[in-house]
Design goal:
The protein is of the alpha/beta class. Helix content is 37%, strand content 16%. It has 14 helices and 15 strands.
């Protein structure tokens, strides 16, 4: 069958964040190997996005397929609701205890990042009710942030395009300026730097809303969908101090940054900051099975453990602790540890960033930034005004795809997040193909 035949049949399914115009010439992927994708019409594409930021170990890892097969043969699924459990979920929870941050020893498993963040919001509300402070329910997030597409996660997300057709907005979500070093939206006072100003905006929002109404602050260590924004080094330590000062829980959305992507196992480790709740998904299985979760501090766990029956933690999903997914997660972590993926991300990310920096010679490349193997190339109409140019960004995206390179256009930023299994030659190929695309515009 031809690509057009497959795309005609594909009209029977509704795709995520869908518009027919953007899906008209979709790639129909048949298989993957390493960092490469192969379409039904024979095209070979270097996947510069690791699927959707998540295929860290690359495509075609037989050991993950085998462990999924073996686990499905013995026990694919059983309920993990109160009164029942399974071996892979026990083993993975034990592996993750303290793995990300000391003091985060308890995991609730879910199916993905949106469920993880919804679980984080509910856990924060639950905790404050258990502490006798039921008015603390609001969540402060950042403009440009992305936290998922369930109803609560949608309105925690700081990107208006995700809100427009799903309003009215849910009550309780407040947005403040993001710590964007290239184009900070807030105001600087005196001799403040951007990290200090962005942190101050959090404190001002807490005071404006009243600390007795604010349950949590949520942040991605590196903002992904909002344009690959890396904060100044002083930002997160200041944020942690502010949260502590006003008794606000700090939720780290590490759905993209978790499990080696930034050159550390988890993103906040770059700034020696520990959250109260950690959301994860994506790379826990490298996309080979659906799995996500939250990890909570021992303090939050104690609030759940000491609750009376009427105050039970009435939250969870059918697929929480899914046996096959947890077995894949365990094996995936074993691979990433054995092949030292955080170090690979650090070394090859440096190579990728240096290569992308050479593209600043083009008049429309305003900024190039990255941390580990997640990078962004921001496209502008001219470097002096820094005016965003989404139309040019889309032209470059399409030109790169024609040259066998997959990136992701995020407004006026091209994102790169290749598998951590990528090698030096393939890193250089990303830069070469992107440069050729830009040169041909």
């Amino acid at each position: 069958m031809t690509t057009n035949n497959w795309l005609e049949k594909d009209k029977k399914q509704l795709h995520p964040v869908y518009h027919p115009k953007s899906h008209a010439n979709a790639l129909v992927i048949e298989r993957g190997e390493g960092v490469w994708l192969y379409t039904v019409d024979g095209k070979k594409i270097l996947d510069g996005m690791a699927g959707l930021w998540n295929v860290n170990v690359g495509y075609g890892r037989e050991e993950l397929a085998k462990v999924a097969y073996d686990q499905m043969k013995s026990l694919a699924f059983t309920s993990n609701f109160s009164g029942m459990t399974n071996l892979p979920s026990i083993q993975l929870a034990e592996k993750l205890a303290g793995f990300a941050y000391e003091g985060l020893n308890t995991t609730l498993f879910v199916s993905g990042g949106s469920e993880a963040n919804d679980s984080a919001f509910k856990t924060a509300r639950y905790y404050w009710k258990r502490k006798g402070k039921p008015t603390k329910y609001k969540v402060i997030a950042r403009k440009g942030s992305y936290h998922g597409v369930t109803l609560a996660a949608t309105f925690a997300t700081g990107l208006e395009k995700y809100h427009t057709m799903f309003g009215p907005a849910m009550d309780g979500f407040v947005h403040i300026p993001a710590p964007n070093p290239y184009r900070y939206e807030g105001q600087l006072k005196g001799d403040e730097n951007i990290g200090q100003a962005a942190a101050r905006s959090l404190e001002e929002a807490i005071l404006r809303e009243n600390p007795d109404t604010v349950a949590a602050f949520i942040a991605e260590p590196v903002m992904g969908v909002g344009g690959v924004i890396i904060p100044p080094d002083d930002y997160f330590p200041l944020v942690r101090a502010i949260c502590d000062k006003y008794e606000i829980l700090f939720i780290a959305d590490e759905v993209i940054t978790g499990f080696g992507r930034t050159g550390e196992w988890f993103g906040l480790k770059h700034w020696n900051v520990k959250p109260d709740i950690l959301s994860f998904a994506k790379a826990i299985t490298s996309g080979y099975a659906q799995l996500g979760g939250i990890q909570i501090s021992d303090t939050l766990r104690d609030a759940i453990e000491t609750a009376t029956e009427p105050e039970a933690f009435m939250h969870g999903y059918t697929y929480s602790g899914h046996a096959m997914s947890c077995a894949v997660g365990l094996k995936n972590l074993e691979i990433m540890e054995k092949e030292n993926y955080p170090q690979r991300a650090k070394e090859l990310g440096k190579r990728l960033l240096e290569g992308l920096q050479t593209l600043k010679e083009f008049s429309f490349v305003g900024d190039v930034r990255g941390l580990g193997l997640v990078c962004g190339v921001e496209i502008v109409s001219d470097k002096e005004s820094k005016n965003p140019d989404p139309a040019m960004t889309m032209k470059i995206f399409k030109a790169a795809q024609e040259r066998g390179l997959r990136t992701r256009p995020l407004g006026n930023t091209l994102a790169f997040s290749p598998p951590l299994s990528i090698n030096e030659e393939e890193v250089d190929e990303i830069v070469k193909r992107l440069g050729a695309a830009m040169d041909g515009i």
